[in-house]
Amino acid sequence: MKKLLQTADSVAEKILSQSQYEMLIDFRDDLQSILSKENRHNATQIQNFKNKHQGKRCFIIGNGPSLNRTDLSKISGEYTFGLNRIYLLFDKINFVPSYYICTNPYVIEQSWTEIEKIAVPKFLGRAGMKYFAGKDDVFFLRSLSHPRFSYNPARGVWEGATVTFVAMQVAYYMGFREIVLLGVDHYFKAKGNPHALVVSEGADPDHFSPDYFGKGVKWQLPDLATSEIAYKMAKDAFEQHSRRVVDATINGRLSVFPKVSFDEIIETKSPS
Question: pLDDT (tens digit, 9 = 90+) per residue, 92-132?
Fold first, then answer.
């Protein structure tokens, strides 16, 4: 069925205008949502977060090595999003994010017992339903096939090859006016075909902990080109509605968003 839908999408994209094609994809995604009772219930739960933090500031915390040089104690009291295996930090510093997001099926499969212990609202990809169905603090995000910035995660999100982009869509839906990126280094020493599934043979040099994707852990190689496309969509979406995303990553290589000093942004009050 998935392959058939992909073929139909490809044919439709060739014969329809861009706007017609996007309308068709949106209609199809909405139809899939309403046909499933489980999807409808989950969407209703996600809708409770709409504009919950309207006009506020949040920090989306990536997992790059620069996080080891970022004093997260300075954002105590701020709204924060933790991603993927951020829980490896919890025992080292006194930090727990406001929200947790993970959509990669391999991370969920290998880390679900640790994810379960994170006592904050969690937004997971559909792979998480196997482990968390019925949990009151877990909300499932549908993965949309057509590249776009989703203004309504209750319908689904495009993953954009990075969970950071997923977090941006969720944060927008919650009403945050300003997003500050931390630990989004946007650089990997590991090379190979994007999305290729590999098994780590040793310590991980590309994240804040050598155990992040340590020996024996399955993970997918990064797709930085696609993630940059997604980030540009996020930048446009926020700026078109008088919001902004800024990058306070220490020595990060992402060039899409305006760079700001971490210390200076901390001294600036959250928008109200």
Answer: 888 999 999 999 999 999 999 999 999 999 999 999 999 99
**Whole-prediction pTM value?**
0.88
What gap in Å lies between CA 164 and CA 102, rounded to an integer? 9
Q: Tell me how far apart the alpha carbons of residues 53 and 127 are, in angstroms, rounded to a whole number.
A: 27
Query: Cα torsion for 165, 171, 172, 177, to the nearest 10°?
Result: -120
CA 44 to centroid of chain Cα atoms = 20
Over the stretch 207-256, which tens digit does the pLDDT of each residue have?
999 999 999 999 999 999 999 999 999 999 999 999 999 999 999 999 99
Measured between alpha carbons, how far is residue 259 from residues 100, 244, 263 in Å?
24, 12, 12
What does the chain come to in residues? 272
Q: Kindly list the structural domains of the chain, giving each domain's residue range(s) and its CATH number in brackets, ordered by start.
A: 38-267 (3.90.1480)
How many Å apart are CA 95 and CA 211, to the nearest integer?
18
